[in-house]
Design brief:
about 110 residues, mainly alpha, Helix Hairpins
């Protein structure tokens, strides 16, 4: 189980690295947020599961499952909230953006107009 734990931990570290690389390489805040959130969510979950496999203690599994569930629920939610806030204050998108679905939804701007 220690070898499997090391492999899963290494896979998590690779995804965390790819998330950091995506933050540097992507052209605007929305793409950076997407690259960082997806890769770091999976990377952190794999890393925690790998550490739990490596330790081989039953008591660590409860904590690992709670941490994985917390990351699974909060990472995408916080990324979505940050992207909506960035769009609301009109942070520009890259010129390569083809479609802006959020621009058609004006319900959150109605309270500013009143």
């Amino acid at each position: 189980m220690m070898i499997l734990g090391a492999i899963v931990t290494l896979a998590g570290a690779v995804f965390l690295f790819l998330g950091a690389l995506g933050l540097v390489r992507m052209p605007d805040v929305y793409n950076r947020m997407q690259a960082g959130t997806k890769a770091t969510t999976l990377g952190a979950m794999l890393f925690i599961i790998g550490v739990a496999l490596y330790n081989q203690e039953f008591s660590i599994w409860g904590k690992a499952i709670l941490l994985v569930l917390f990351i699974l629920l909060t990472n995408p939610l916080s990324s979505h909230a940050l992207a909506r806030a960035a769009h609301r204050i009109k942070i520009p998108m890259t010129e390569k953006t083809v479609k802006d679905d959020l621009a058609q939804e004006t319900y959150y701007l109605q309270d500013e107009e009143k």
